[in-house]
Write a structure and sequence with these properties.
This protein has helices spanning 39-52, 65-73, 88-96, 126-134, 162-171, 187-195, 237-241, 262-270, 273-281; strands at 4-11, 28-35, 56-63, 79-82, 102-115, 124-125, 153-157, 182-184, 200-205, 217-219, 221-224, 230-233, 248-255, 285-286, 291-298. It is built from nine helices and 15 strands. It is of the alpha/beta class. It folds into two domains: 4-107 and 249-295, Periplasmic binding protein-like II (D-Maltodextrin-Binding Protein, domain 2); 109-248, Periplasmic binding protein-like II (D-Maltodextrin-Binding Protein, domain 2). Helices cover 28% and strands 29% of the residues. The strands form three sheets. Strands 2, 3, 4, 5, 7, 8, 9, 10, 13 and 14 form a ten-stranded mixed sheet that branches. The relative contact order is 0.24.
């Protein structure tokens, strides 16, 4: 009888051992500023780090993305986690101040589109989303996939948030400022507002929806697959990893320590197998996902 050999490509989180090991001897104090939607996630990373290094004191505080960057550039903190990279203006300020920035991409996430549960809209194309974000569509009847009337209540966090700049400059490359009809302080506030306002449509990090029960409807995006077929996609881990979901972005850890200290050790932990697993279990896509081939033998 012939043996049948099949090669199955298995996606694993067995990160390459030894690539990012925590530093052997670390002590001191560090304040970590984190973009608001990622505070619970990064608290888990810090708790793991402190369990390994009892001589370290580390606090985590939430911040707007722009606020965290300003604090780092003003030398108020030396380590931040934000949901977009430094822009050219910010890089120039750092260079002029002779601040040596170490950038680490640590995970990938997506921007989820949420509406009230009573909103019957089945999906949206990227073009329809852009019309809402740019203010071209201010009524639901102007959104092709919509089956309702009334004004579009575009809900977003403020201009200093990472998701604001991601929508404006990375996703849609809008030259003018965005003009949401309702501006909220945090992404959790966006979720709570949309849950109680039938005309609302909000934009939040996909991973924040996995942090607890939410009373909103997540709208899939219609886009073409690799074979040219139009399909609905949510911001799931596989869809983000394979770039099937169009509204994706990366999470970054910046360190500006003058010499190796707590921040460098923490970066190593975040990029280690243990740290990356925390991201994976929280619904994000880790930055290092190697593949392995397993041979299955069947007679």
């Amino acid at each position: 009888m012939k043996q049948l050999y099949r090669s199955i490509l298995v996606l694993t989180l067995l990160l390459v051992g030894g690539c990012h090991k925590p530093e052997p001897a670390i002590s001191g104090y560090q304040l970590l500023l984190v973009a608001e939607p990622y505070l619970p996630l990064m608290q888990q990373e810090v708790d793991q780090f402190l369990s390994l290094y009892p001589n370290v004191r580390m606090q985590v505080r939430s911040s707007s993305t722009r606020g965290a960057i300003v604090s780092l550039l003003n030398d108020s903190v030396s380590t931040i986690v934000i949901d977009r990279p430094f822009n050219e203006e910010e890089k120039q300020v750092a260079q002029q101040a002779s601040i040596r920035l170490v950038e680490n991409k640590i995970a990938d996430d997506g921007i989820a589109i949420i509406v009230h549960k009573q909103n019957p809209i089945p999906n949206m194309t990227a073009e329809s989303v852009e019309r809402i974000v740019t203010g071209t569509a201010t009524e639901w009847r102007q959104v092709a996939e919509s089956h309702r009337t009334g004004p579009v209540d575009f809900v977003l966090t403020g201009i200093n948030s990472g998701i604001y700049e991601l929508l404006q400059k990375k996703i849609f490359n809008v030259s003018k400022s965005l003009e949401p009809t309702t501006v909220m302080t945090s992404q959790r506030d966006v979720i709570q507002y949309v849950a109680t306002h039938p005309d609302a449509v909000g934009f939040v990090a996909a991973s924040i929806l996995k942090q607890g029960p939410v009373e909103v409807k997540v709208v899939p995006v219609l886009t073409k697959s690799a074979n040219g077929e139009t399909k609905e996609y949510f911001a799931g881990q596989l869809e983000l990893h394979e770039s099937l979901y169009p509204f994706h972005y990366s999470l970054y850890l910046y360190n500006a320590e003058a010499k190796a200290a707590v921040g460098v050790g923490f970066s190593s932990l975040v990029l280690s197998q243990v740290g990356q697993k925390i991201f994976q279990e929280s619904g994000l896509v880790p930055v290092s996902i190697p593949y392995r081939t397993i041979q299955l033998h069947a007679e």
